[in-house]
Amino acid sequence: MSMPTMLGKKVVITGGTNGIGRAIAILFAKEGSDIVIVGTNEERGREVINSMIECQIDDSQNFIFNSVDVSNNGEVESFSKNILSKWGFVDILINCAGITRDKLFITMKEEDWDIVMDTNLKSVYNVVCKFLRTMIKRRYGKIINISSVVGVIGNAGQVNYAASKAGMIGMTRALAVELASRNICVNCIAPGFIDSEMTKKLSDEQKNKILERVPLGRFGSLDDIANVALFLASKSSDYITGQVLIVDGGLTS
């Protein structure tokens, strides 16, 4: 049996109640982390906490759910103060919070633009700002941002989403350069089409058209992304920063 890679690490995961964030939370629980998941759905939050408890490897592990609108700077500030008073520091920040409001740009309303930018991109600013000082003080930290392949290649009907995810990539690269001297690594994962609630809503015809573009011939799994996040959070990636790991089955090859 292999040794856990994240024993005792303090981890905050935004968007941790569903999809990729949930998969990351459960995998990190199996690897020994103390975890705070952040979301807005309390029922889902309780379900993820129970799932983490079922697979924890040490009774001392600490799992917390906080209902927070990460696009709201005031809510994030209150949340971060609470976590830092409890833990004192955070080792790893994983920014998964994200939404879509898809429509052609010509019909896109200002509120469609604003809510996507605030939830997907401004939230990263809000969360990183609140925890960064303790990382700098300790000269250690890992920040992992979950972007999208849409932020790399674009997609019709998703101008707001693509802009937010491309902004996340630019933020990752610039922040990595600023923080490298403090031994803080900042990286980004850009998933392709993942088997999730979003893709389950597609028709068979839509799915087949997508899969024709994917050389591996399948949608990615949530675990495909969670495993990359685990690698980036572990010591195995200590010499990797400012990178965008595209996990898309060869879509962008």
Q: What is the topology?
A:
Elements: E1 10-14, H1 19-30, E2 34-39, H2 42-55, E3 63-67, H3 73-87, E4 92-95, H4 110-138, E5 141-146, H5 150-153, H6 159-179, E6 184-191, H7 197-200, H8 204-211, H9 222-233, E7 244-247
Helix pairs in contact: 1-2, 1-9, 3-4, 4-6
- The fold-level CATH name is Rossmann fold
Radius of gyration: 18 Å
State the name of the first-level CATH class.
Answer: Alpha Beta
Biggest sheet architecture: 7 strands, parallel
CATH superfamily: NAD(P)-binding Rossmann-like Domain
Helix content: 40-55%
Mean pLDDT: 95
Return the structural class: alpha/beta
Low-confidence stretches: none
Q: Please tell me the CATH architecture by its name.
A: 3-Layer(aba) Sandwich
Instruction: Provide the β-strand percentage band.
Output: 15-25%
Count of extended strands: 7
Shape: globular
Order of helices and strands: EHEHEHEHEHHEHHHE
Please report the distance between the alpha carbons of the first and last residues: 36 Å
Tally of distinct domains: 1
Largest sheet, spatial ordering of strands: 3-2-1-4-5-6-7
The number of helical runs is 9
